Amino acid sequence: MRSLAFTSLCLAIVLSVSFSSYAGTSTAVPMKSHPIEVTDWSFECVNGSSCGASTDTWITTTSQPGTTRLWDAGVTWSDMNNGSDSYNWTNLDTWLDLVAAHQPTAVIYTFGHVPCFITSVACNQNANGDSKYWSGGPPTDLTSKGSDTFNAYVTQLTQHCSAAGNCVKDYIKYWELWNEHNLTHYWSGSVTQMYDMLKPAVAIIRANVSGAIVSTPAICGGGNAWMTSWLATENSQGKLSDYYGFHTYLYGYEPETRMNEVMSFVAIKNDAGWTTTPWMNTETNFSVETNVCTSTVEDCDGQIVRWHVLQFAYQGGGGGAFHVGWYNWPSISSGGYDTYYYTMMQWLSGSTFSASCSSSGTIYTCPLTEADGSTALIVWNSSGNSSYTPASEYVDYRSFNGTYGGTKTTISSGEETTIGLIPIMFETTK
Question: Looking at domain 9-352, what is its CATH homologous superfamily?
Answer without folding.
Answer: Glycosidases (3.20.20.80)
